[in-house]
Design goal:
Two copies of one chain form a homodimer.
Chain A lengths: L42 E2 L2 E2 L2 H12 L23 H11 L31 H19 L10 E2 L2 H19 L3 H4 L3 H23 L6 E3 L4 E4 L6
Parallel strand pairs in A: 3-5
Antiparallel strand pairs in A: 1-2, 4-5
Helix pairs in contact in A: 3-4, 4-6
Bound molecules: zinc ion (4 copies).
One zinc ion binds next to helix 1 of chain A.
Chain B binds a DNA duplex through strand 1 and helix 1.
Chain lengths: 235, 235
DNA sequence: CCCAGTCCACTGTACATTTCG
DNA sequence: ACGAAATGTACAGTGGACTGG
């Protein structure tokens, strides 16, 4: 069958090695899972079992799961019903001799999945110049659209919850306009644009508030002239 | 060749699982539902389709539904009209290649998605007082452990990449010590503690650098007395 | 190979919202 | 008007493909 070439099976990297024929065709994998009777893939945690039961046992032990049977604690566990009751499946794993000591701790990510291949990483279109230009451009857009002027000290009031939400909404809108002024951002597909903004919206809000409040003492100034102080809350 | 024939490859169940993609083989998932043309979320029951059609097919097969068309059995099925005629929608699912064998049996119950909606949210043990106390406590620990003194202006140098990584590592260790001084944090289970710190490590680093640099102009001061300037990079 | 591990496409369930009878 | 059923989104769980010692 046309097995797909994987990363380290590049023909140029391998000498023509004949697949070794196992003498007598003694396939050790013709056994059945001791838990669910599916085809076994070897010994797992001390028991001949399938990949499904292997994974199920590992996950259950790692998370120290306590399942409950909704029936009489005697559910049948076979390939088709093995997901019906996790209590009985796990019980059968232990009964069959699976040892939870054989489950190891989580390892580091390997992530050769997405090999990233030491790509030089295209940094064209990423410069402080462009960021500054985007900053200016977005500030223009925002000032015309939102009609915001410099925050007036006289306007300051202690922020209510609504003020906080309101300023977050406003700042997030500004964030989007700003991002759209960065050429490299626009080269991303829409999904990636959204994901990028979503994941780092928190950092942006924080950085904005930090900058805005850098010369103040004892309180944080939000984008809508309300301030957050220690402990106090606006009415 | 003896390819494994297990659960998903059982001819009665479906899903020819493709071998893992080799690098470079990007599948952007920007495809459309073969049934209704909505945005697809992957292959479902063997057909590139949307979540709506996926759920519709599963429910229909599980309950062995027999629908009837009230028109001419040739209704158009698209994003807007897909719910107009179940008969034609299901027919189109099968025509597109959805396999009812791929619909599995009901499984065990899983943990509740929204564990308890509007619970009063326990805020005892969450106060500015406690945070300030934690700040002081962690500062003591850090100063004895890391022997850090106030950053000396004379030590300042333009940060190399190594300086940046080094300061991040240092700040993250400080972050952990700080969190461990917050009583409410210690009440979380270890997994939640880790998750919380991981997700918001970025914000903490940002906030730390912002505070440290609040009176500086044109550069950011890192925790190890190195500074990041615009454009310049330490040798 | 063997058997630990990880990865991730694809299953499933939970439930707010919408539609139907 | 209202309860029951269907819909579709969000996320948890599964297991086969894969890596590594
Ligand atoms: Zn099994
Ligand atoms: Zn049971
Ligand atoms: Zn669809
Ligand atoms: Zn129809």
């Amino acid at each position: 069958m046309g097995k797909k070439l994987t990363f380290n099976e590049d023909p140029r990297l391998l000498s023509e090695r004949e697949p070794r024929l196992s003498p007598g065709d003694t396939s050790p994998l013709n056994q059945l899972c001791a838990i669910c009777n599916d085809k076994a893939t070897g010994k797992h945690y001390n028991v001949i079992s399938c990949d499904g039961c292997k994974g199920f046992f590992r996950r259950s032990v790692r998370k120290n799961q306590k399942y409950a049977c909704r029936y009489g604690r005697s559910c049948t566990v076979d390939r088709e019903k093995r997901n019906h009751c996790r209590y009985c499946r796990l019980k059968k794993c232990f009964r069959a001799g699976m040892r939870k000591e054989a489950v190891q701790n989580e390892r580091d990510r390997i992530s050769s999945r997405r090999p990233s291949f030491e790509e030089p990483a295209d940094v064209s279109g990423l410069s402080v110049q462009l960021l500054l230009r985007a900053e200016l451009a977005s500030r223009q857009i925002d000032s015309t659209r939102l009609g915001s002027r410099e925050a007036d000290v006289a306007d300051r009031r202690v922020a209510t919850h609504a003020d906080v939400f309101d300023s977050m909404k406003q700042q997030l809108l500004i964030l989007v306009e700003w991002a759209k002024c960065i050429p490299a951002f626009l080269q991303l597909c829409l999904e990636d644009q959204i994901a990028l903004l979503r994941t780092h919206a928190g950092e942006h809000l924080l950085l904005g508030a930090s900058w805005r409040s850098r010369h103040l003492h004892g309180f944080v100034l939000l984008g809508n002239s309300s301030v957050v102080t220690r402990g106090a809350q606006g009415k």
